[in-house]
């Protein structure tokens, strides 16, 4: 009996040792990464609140799989640093948001991840390159066991991914295997495009690769890609927007009223890729405003209505 008890304890320790802590940095009105890759049951999602008045919840407007506990870091707070751990126990799709900076749990400061049961494949590498208006994904496996296919997934916002192609796997292998896929359907409205690889085995177990980003050289030069909502309801007060950045730096935003007076100046952190930002406009009088954005030599002006 003593030997059997020791074996059980060792097995529990071994299972726990394979669990991973996945860190999400919460700062500058963003969850980073916005879609954390390769989450499996048993992992812990650690929300590290770095700056800003934020929280992370899935209650009311979010999504968790049936039987899973809600993500709930508590009421929004600006007391940092702090952290919140969420243990993933159920496979499936999770969507969470900041109660202050997302009006619907989907747009604005919101993010997702998909948890899977571990798949018996050793993904050695996964990379995506851009050349001649084509994105090429290349990956290698060190070993495979009962693998069915690979699904190449694409996103233009770093959050929501759709399948753009499938590649049949070798299935069972103890030697290195190489695969590739080309995506020629690149939208000129998207300067940054995100890819990840989903591995699916014959029992429908799934796992996700790290996310890779390319810069689409044929994209139309754009700084601010989306403003939502517009008009801004004074009762809500937040104008959420997305913007492109080729550098890690600072986006400068200025709000100018109808008389030409600058009534707000704000600096927002920018990282290479697609970024989220927000401006509080709930205290502004009803009217039409020009919002001027400046970053890395680019300048854009957008009209925003407060009602």
Question: Can you give me a brief rundown of this structure?
Answer:
By secondary structure, the protein is mainly β.
Commentary on this structure:
The protein is mainly beta. It has three domains: 2-116, Cupredoxins -  blue copper proteins (Immunoglobulin-like), CATH 2.60.40; 121-215, Immunoglobulins (Immunoglobulin-like, Sandwich), CATH 2.60.40.10; 224-306, Immunoglobulin-like, CATH 2.60.40.3080. It has one helix and 22 strands. The chain has one helix at residues 2-17, and strands spanning 21-27, 30-32, 39-40, 44-49, 82-87, 92-97, 110-116, 121-131, 134-144, 147-155, 162-168, 177-183, 192-201, 206-208, 212-215, 224-228, 238-245, 249-256, 262-270, 273-280, 287-295, 298-306. The strands form six sheets. Strands 10, 11, 13, 14 and 15 form a five-stranded antiparallel beta sheet that branches. A hairpin with a 4-residue loop joins strand 13 and strand 14. The protein is globular. Residues 1-18 have low confidence and may be disordered.
């Amino acid at each position: 009996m003593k030997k059997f008890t020791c074996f059980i304890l060792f097995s529990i320790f071994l299972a726990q040792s394979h669990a991973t802590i996945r860190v999400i940095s919460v700062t500058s009105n963003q969850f980073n990464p916005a879609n954390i890759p390769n989450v499996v049951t048993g992992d812990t999602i650690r929300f590290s609140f770095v700056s800003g008045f934020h929280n992370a919840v899935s209650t009311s407007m979010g999504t968790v799989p049936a039987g899973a506990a809600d993500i709930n870091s508590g009421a929004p707070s600006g007391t940092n640093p702090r952290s919140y751990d969420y243990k993933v126990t159920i496979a499936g799709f999770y969507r969470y948001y900041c109660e202050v900076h997302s009006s619907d749990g989907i747009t604005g400061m919101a993010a997702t991840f998909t948890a899977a049961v571990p798949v018996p494949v050793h993904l050695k590498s996964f990379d995506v390159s851009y050349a001649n208006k084509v994105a090429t994904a290349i990956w290698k496996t060190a070993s495979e066991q009962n693998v069915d296919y690979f699904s190449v997934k694409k996103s233009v916002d770093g959050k929501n991914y759709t399948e753009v192609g499938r590649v049949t796997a070798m299935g069972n292998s103890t030697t290195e295997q190489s695969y590739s896929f080309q995506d020629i359907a690149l939208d000129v409205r998207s300067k940054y495009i995100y890819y990840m690889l989903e591995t699916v085995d014959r029992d429908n177990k799934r796992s996700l690769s790290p996310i890779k980003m390319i810069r689409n050289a044929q994209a139309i030069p754009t700084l601010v890609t989306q403003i939502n909502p517009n008009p801004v309801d004074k009762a809500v007060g937040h104008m959420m927007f997305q913007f492109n950045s080729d550098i890690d730096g600072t986006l400068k935003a200025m709000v100018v009223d109808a008389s030409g007076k600058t009534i707000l100046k704000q600096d927002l952190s920018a990282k290479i890729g697609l970024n989220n930002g927000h401006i509080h406009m709930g205290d502004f009088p009803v009217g039409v405003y020009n919002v001027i954005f400046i970053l890395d030599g680019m300048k854009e002006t957008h009209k925003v209505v407060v009602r």
